[in-house]
Amino acid sequence: MPKKKDQPKKDALAKGDRVSWRSHGGTAEGEVEKKITKRTKAAGRTVAASPEEPQYVVRSDKSGGEAVHKASALKKRKKR
């Protein structure tokens, strides 16, 4: 039986999702603000995202800063 290719995951990230990620000082937490699916500038740098390899703009709870991460770097958290 052939494998189904690139099915969306049930746990895919969306705007408003609470996430955590590894940061310089340990673990940071925040909220997904936007999904990026094409090459663009975000958070002060060029982001090489695509529909197959999306990246996410996240806002840190602690600093209020904006960052961009691949889905593999983000861990979905429970909503507050």
Can you describe what's shown?
InterPro entries: Hva1_TUDOR. This protein is mostly beta strands. It has one domain. It contains no helices and 7 strands. Strand 5 and strand 6 form a beta hairpin. The protein is globular. It starts with 17 loop residues before the first strand and ends with a strand. 10% of the residues are buried. The mean pLDDT is 87.
Provide key terms for this protein.
7 strands; 0% helix; 5-stranded antiparallel sheet; 80 residues; Hypervirulence associated protein TUDOR domain-containing protein; 45% strand; Hva1_TUDOR; mainly beta; two-stranded antiparallel ribbon
The biggest beta sheet is recorded as: 5 strands, antiparallel
Cα distance spanning the termini: 42 Å
Number of strands: 7
Overall structural class, as computed from helix and strand content, comes to mainly beta
Shape: globular
* Helix and strand sequence: EEEEEEE
What gyration radius follows from the Cα positions, in whole Å?
13 Å
Beta-strand percent range: over 45%
Helix content: under 10%
Low-confidence stretches: none
Report the total helices: 0
- Widest sheet: strand order? 6-5-2-1-7
Tally of individual domains = 1
Please tell me the overall pLDDT: 87
Pfam family, one: Hva1_TUDOR
Protein name: Hypervirulence associated protein TUDOR domain-containing protein
Region (Disordered): 1-80
InterPro entries: Hva1_TUDOR
